[in-house]
C-alpha cells in the first residue's frame, strides 16, 4: 500500500486538472481562496497519484482524463472507461487533509480509508466530554485513566484518527457507522507486522477493533498508525486480500512519498518524515 503526502507550504504549482469534488457555494463563500486552493491541490494529488500507478501497468493515462464518481454514501471512486482491449487496474484510493497537509492512500484490490490529523490540533471542548459524546465506553474509560492532560489529548487524537480511517474504509459514511458502534484498542505487540521499503522493518503495537452493534463490521481489516513530518498522525485502514481468508497477521508492504504534483516526488520512507507507531492485521 502506498501513501502520497503533500505539505501545502511546499506547493504553488499551477494545473488545469478537472475536479474530484468541488466545494459547495456555501463553503466557497465561507472560506474563499483558501478552500479553493485546498480543493485544487487535493484533486491534483489524487489524479497524478492514480495516473502514476496506472503507468506502472504499462498503460499510460493522462491525469486530466480520469473521471470520478461517488458510492451511495459519498465515498469517491475512479470511474474507469472500459475498453474491449483494456481492463482497468484494481486500484482503490482515499484522501484526507488538514490545513497544512494532504494525504492520498492507494492500494491494489483492497478498500482503504485514510485520515490525517494535526498532533497539535486544538479541541474546542473538554476531551472527556467530547469523548463521551462520540466514543465507546471502553475508549472513554481508557482516556479517563490517563492523568497527564497532554498524553490524554494525544491519545484522543490517535483514537479519533483511527476511527475516521475505519469508517472511511468501510465506505458507508459516519451516519451508517457511528463512532460509538465500535471500539478501537491498542495493545503491545510481540511480533513485527509492517515491512517498509528499503528493507526497513518496524516493531509496533497492535490495533484491534470490536463491534458493539448487532452487525459485525470488523471482519478482515488491518490498521496502521503513523507519524508524518513530526507534526501529524496518519491512520490507515485497509481490507486484507481475499486470498488470505482474513486469518492471521499479514505483513504490510508500505511505500510513502512526499509529492508536489507535476513538480517533485520524493520517497520519504525510512526517514524521520514517516514514523510507524502501531498496526495490526486480525
UniProtKB/TrEMBL annotation:
Gene3D superfamilies: 4'-phosphopantetheinyl transferase domain (3.90.470.20). Its EC number is 2.7.8.7. One of its GO terms (biological process) is lysine biosynthetic process via aminoadipic acid. The lineage of its organism: Eukaryota, Viridiplantae, Streptophyta, Embryophyta, Tracheophyta. GO terms for molecular function: holo-[acyl-carrier-protein] synthase activity; magnesium ion binding. Residues 111-196 form the 4'-phosphopantetheinyl transferase domain. Keywords: Transferase. It is an enzyme of class 2 (transferase). The keyword Ion transport does not apply. This is holo-[acyl-carrier-protein] synthase. One of its GO terms (cellular component) is cytosol.
Amino acid at each position: 500500500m502506498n501513501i502520497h503526502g503533500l505539505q501545502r507550504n511546499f506547493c504553488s504549482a499551477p494545473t488545469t486538472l478537472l475536479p474530484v469534488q468541488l466545494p459547495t457555494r456555501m463553503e466557497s463563500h465561507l472560506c474563499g481562496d483558501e478552500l479553493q486552493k485546498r480543493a485544487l491541490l487535493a484533486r491534483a494529488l489524487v489524479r497524478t497519484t492514480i495516473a502514476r500507478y496506472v503507468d506502472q501497468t504499462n498503460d499510460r493515462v493522462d491525469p486530466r482524463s480520469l473521471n470520478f464518481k461517488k458510492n451511495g454514501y459519498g465515498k469517491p471512486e475512479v470511474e474507469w472507461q472500459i475498453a474491449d482491449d483494456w481492463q482497468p487496474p484494481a486500484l482503490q484510493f482515499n484522501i484526507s487533509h488538514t490545513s497544512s497537509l494532504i494525504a492520498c492512500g492507494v492500494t491494489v484490490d483492497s478498500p482503504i480509508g485514510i485520515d490525517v490529523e494535526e498532533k497539535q490540533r486544538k479541541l474546542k471542548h473538554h476531551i472527556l466530554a467530547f469523548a463521551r459524546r462520540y466514543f465507546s465506553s471502553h475508549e472513554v474509560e481508557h482516556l479517563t485513566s490517563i492523568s497527564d492532560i497532554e498524553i490524554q489529548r494525544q491519545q484522543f487524537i490517535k483514537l479519533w484518527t483511527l476511527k475516521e480511517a475505519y469508517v472511511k474504509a468501510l465506505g458507508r459514511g459516519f451516519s451508517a457507522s457511528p463512532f460509538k458502534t465500535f471500539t478501537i484498542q491498542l495493545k503491545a505487540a510481540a511480533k513485527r507486522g509492517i515491512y517498509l521499503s528499503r528493507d526497513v522493518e518496524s516493531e509496533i503495537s497492535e490495533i484491534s477493533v470490536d463491534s458493539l452493534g448487532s452487525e459485525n463490521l470488523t471482519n478482515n481489516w488491518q490498521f496502521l498508525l503513523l507519524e508524518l513530518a513530526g507534526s501529524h498522525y496518519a491512520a490507515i485502514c485497509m481490507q486484507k486480500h481475499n486470498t488470505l481468508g482474513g486469518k492471521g497477521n499479514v505483513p504490510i508492504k508500505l511505500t510513502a512519498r512526499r509529492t508536489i504534483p507535476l513538480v517533485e516526488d520524493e520517497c520519504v520512507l525510512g526517514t524521520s518524515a514517516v514514523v510507524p507507531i502501531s498496526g495490526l492485521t486480525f
